[in-house]
Amino acid sequence: MIGRNGSHRTGSVPMTDPVQCEFISWNRCAGLGLRLARRVVESGYRPTLIVAVGRGGWMPARILSDRLGQMNLASVKIEHYRAAHKAPETIIRYPLPATVDGERILLVDDVSDSGDTFVAALAHLRSRGEPQAVRTAVLHHKTVSRHTPDYFAARVVKWRWIIYPWAVTEDLVTLLREAGADPDDPARAGEILRRRHGLRIPRALLAEVLTALREGVWK
């Protein structure tokens, strides 16, 4: 999605033709997070530092921090910008505040989509010192990604946009606004999401999203 000032917000729905989407509930995310943690444990890797890629990696990284018993948790905020007639640019909005010399790092995001975010994050980590090891982890790995994570809970072969509960308002408001949905017509809004994007959103959640749309959230 191209936002104000020509920027791409990391994690926002790409606004071209209607895209197929999948909504992941909090319960499913918790299960995926535990599955991901088991795969890290079973591999024998013991990170001394978990680094979340903001914004999408914050919740998965916190689940891993809890399950792996690793309190050292930091983050790096990455954004994607595309100005008119220029190639996309990945920038580090908020860099990692610490050096990483000697650390065994687990770099965490929610999804590996294009892979550009991981490429930028890994380069940034190398600029912050000489870690002993760096491995990457996501809830969903899309096979089209240029980066294959060391750990993933689920593989996505047929591309679709993944909507996580921590980004559901942003993503659904974007989809509904693009379709010209009326925030005072929940039945029509639900139909738009079903027909255009294959989504079936719980009524109470849709009501909250339509309130956000009405209030002008995520313009």
Automatic annotation (TrEMBL):
InterPro entries: PRTase-like (IPR029057), PRTase_dom (IPR000836). GO terms for molecular function: glycosyltransferase activity. Pfam families: Pribosyltran. Signal peptide: none annotated. It comes from the Bacteria. Residues 35-163 form the Phosphoribosyltransferase domain. It comes from Thioalbus denitrificans. This is Phosphoribosyltransferase domain-containing protein. Keywords: Glycosyltransferase, Transferase.
